[in-house]
Specification:
The protein has about 150 residues and is mostly helical. It has helices at about 1-10, 20-50, 75-90, 95-120, 125-130, 140-145. The chain starts with a helix and ends in an 8-residue tail after the last helix.
Length: about 150
C-alpha cells in the first residue's frame, strides 16, 4: 500500500494512465495466475506429506519432491509473485521497487530462521536437500553467493 500511495503522490506508473491498459491487465493477471499455481502446488505438496503450511506450527515432514524439488521456498516465491502481479495491476512502480527490501527482510529474517530450524530438526537429510535444491530458482551466481556457496568452479 505504501508503494501505491507513493505512486499516487508523485504520479509514477508503469503504464501511462491515458494509454491502452490491456498489457497491464494481461501481464499483471498472468503474474497473479502464476503465483496462484505455484502456491497451489506448494500447499498441495505440504498437505500430501502431512505437514502443516502455517510456519507457526511444527514441521512434521521434510518435503523435497514436486515443486519443492525445484525450489526450497516455492510458497515465498508465490507471495513475491502475487505482490509483483498486484503491483503491475495497480500500475505501481514504487510497489515493485519496495518488493526488493521486502524480499531481503524475508530472506534474512524469516527464511534464515526456518533453515536453521529445519537443519536442527532433520539434520543430514535437510543438509543434503539444501545442497541439491536451490533456495529460490536455479543456481545463478547471485543465488550461489546468497547461499554461501561461492562462485561455481569448472
Amino acid at each position: 500500500l505504501a508503494g501505491i500511495a507513493i505512486d499516487r503522490l508523485f504520479a509514477f506508473g508503469l503504464f501511462p494512465p491515458d494509454g491502452d491498459q490491456s498489457l497491464r491487465w494481461a501481464g499483471g493477471g498472468a503474474v497473479v495466475a502464476l503465483a496462484a499455481l505455484v502456491m497451489t502446488l506448494g500447499v498441495t505438496n505440504f498437505r500430501r506429506a502431512g505437514t502443516p503450511v502455517p510456519t507457526r506450527a511444527p514441521t512434521t515432514a521434510l518435503v523435497t519432491t514436486g515443486i519443492h524439488g525445484l525450489s526450497r521456498n516455492p510458497l515465498y516465491i508465490s507471495l513475491y509473485l502475487f505482490y509483483a502481479g498486484f503491483a503491475i495491476l495497480a500500475n505501481s512502480v514504487a510497489a515493485l521497487v519496495l518488493l526488493v527490501p521486502l524480499a531481503i527482510v524475508i530472506r534474512h529474517g524469516v527464511v534464515a530462521r526456518e533453515e536453521r530450524y529445519l537443519e536442527r530438526k532433520f539434520g543430514e537429510a535437510y543438509l543434503a536437500y539444501k545442497h541439491a535444491v536451490p533456495r529460490w530458482i536455479g543456481r545463478t551466481r547471485l543465488a550461489r553467493l546468497d547461499e554461501g556457496l561461492g562462485p561455481k568452479r569448472g
